Amino acid sequence: MKNICLFLLFIFLSTTLEANQSMVEVIKKVKPSVVGVGITTPMNSPANQLQGTGFVIGNGHYIATNYHVVSASLDPDVVQYRSIYAGNAKNTKTFRAEVVDVDPVHDLAILKIDTKLPPLKVAPDEFVPEGTHIAFTGFPIGAVLGLYPASHRGMVAAITPDAIPARRSDQLSINMLDRLQKVFLIYQLDATAYPGNSGSPMYLSDSGVVVGVINKVFVAETKESVLSKPSGISYAVPVIHLRKLAAKSNIAL
């Protein structure tokens, strides 16, 4: 009996070590394709303002992110442009970017840069099943912590409508009512995303293939409590909508 227990323990430890080593390799492969998305104002100090995360797709010249990351208008009174930040805080490369197309309904946007970066593979249109192990890499609280990509992992907890109900009718805004009439399915995750993770690639933990785009976290109390009391529930937009947006601009994924 003792020998059987030792054998089972050995098998468990070997499997865990193999899984951890696989995750190490996947993150190592994904990180060079994850970038910061922001605005550069040359006359300001600091000049770069990180607003979210993005990841390289297509032929290496395109960046996918959330629409809400790039939805704010540029200041027409100063020299200002959208930028992509590659690397990390100690070795940052800044590339000027332009918005190619946006999809406000599904909270997606695609930008373009002149420089070629390593793209990530995007999965087909099919939903991955609940229970699928996933990970995402981005810049949580990047505006404070800087350009240091961090990875989190979890699983797909549910495939659910993109609608968080309001507690009272007076909390229903016009924008929320509009979204309720255009409900689509998204991934609910048992992993915690933070401000700055918006636009992060959600990928299969065993391969690095992108299956979704992180776009929000459920806030249980107030926006200020998301750091001290995270709900542990995050959401991601399925890549079927990213593929449709890319196809509009003839971007092959």
Automatic annotation (TrEMBL):
Q: Name one Pfam family in it.
A: Trypsin_2
Return one Gene Ontology term, BP aspect: proteolysis
Q: Which domain of life is it from?
A: Bacteria
Q: What is this protein called?
A: Serine protease
Named from the GO MF annotations, one term is: peptidase activity
Signal sequence, renumbered to the chain:
1-19
Give the keywords, sorted: Hydrolase, Protease, Signal
